[in-house]
Amino acid sequence: MKYALVTGGTRGIGLAVCKLLVQNGYCVTALYSGGRGLEEAKETVPEAEFVCADVANEEAVKAVFERLKRLDLLVNNAGIACYSQVQDTSFAEFRRVTDVNIGGAFLCTKYAVKKMLANGGAIVNISSVWGETGGSCESVYSASKGAVIAFTKAVSKELAPSGITVNCVSPGVVDTEMNAHLSIEEKAALGREIPLGRMGSAEEIAAAVLYFANAKYVTGQVLGVNGGFYI
């Protein structure tokens, strides 16, 4: 039995990852910060254990990892967005987005490594195409996701001698709750910009995560799952 921890595990990409990992024999612990979607998540993946913890709170993160007996896979998926022009964005908004998106990845990685040093393991971070190209009116989100990519590459070098791989999945436009603010017309317009002609699904991102979980000789890589939106 392999053990995995997935942050932001009750909705969208995180929930799809939990479901796929359970189907592939993992014992899954999923973190969430709010109750929205929890009951549906429990119905979708009843085998998973759902734990409420804010990944931006070090004491909460530390407590979660201390109760784990073993960890083979960490998926840093938790993330929040911020849609506004830079001059209209408050520093408090900047801090919250970066605290969750890159701070959470840092904290969970920090405590996961202590569980993985004896037996090795895999860490998969979820970034975004905006972390590679930047997104207009999403400067803070883009910056936080760009930091996730840089963090992935640096930590992969640091942890490789311990047999721990660190990789990053960079989704394009995915049809999840994070993009629910888009109108039907806006989604259609985006689809026309994507060479494959459509938005991606959470399940397609989850498949990339599983690939990295099993790839023993791949580390420090960023895999764009974006339908050709960015090449």
Structure characteristics:
7 strands; 8 helices; alpha/beta; seven-stranded parallel sheet; about 230 residues; globular
Your description of this structure?
- With 231 residues, the chain is of the alpha/beta class.
- It contains eight helices and seven strands, in the order βαβαβαβαβααβααβ.
- It has helices spanning 12-23, 38-44, 58-66, 91-116, 129-133, 139-159, 184-193, 202-214, and strands spanning 2-6, 26-32, 49-52, 73-76, 121-126, 164-171, 222-225.
- A seven-stranded parallel beta sheet has the order 3-2-1-4-5-6-7, sandwiched between helices.
- α1 (12-23) packs across α8, α3 packs parallel to α4 (91-116) and α4 runs parallel beside α6 (139-159).
- The relative contact order is 0.15.
- The model has no long low-confidence stretch (mean pLDDT 95).
Strand content: 15-25%
Distance between the termini: 37 Å
Q: What's the mean pLDDT score?
A: 95
**Percent range of helical residues:** 40-55%
Strand order of the largest sheet: 3-2-1-4-5-6-7
Q: How is the biggest beta sheet arranged? A: 7 strands, parallel
What is the overall shape? globular
Rg, nearest Å: 17 Å
The number of helical elements comes to: 8
Structural class: alpha/beta
> Strand tally, please?
7
The helix/strand series, from N terminus to C terminus, equals EHEHEHEHEHHEHHE
**Uncertain stretches:** none
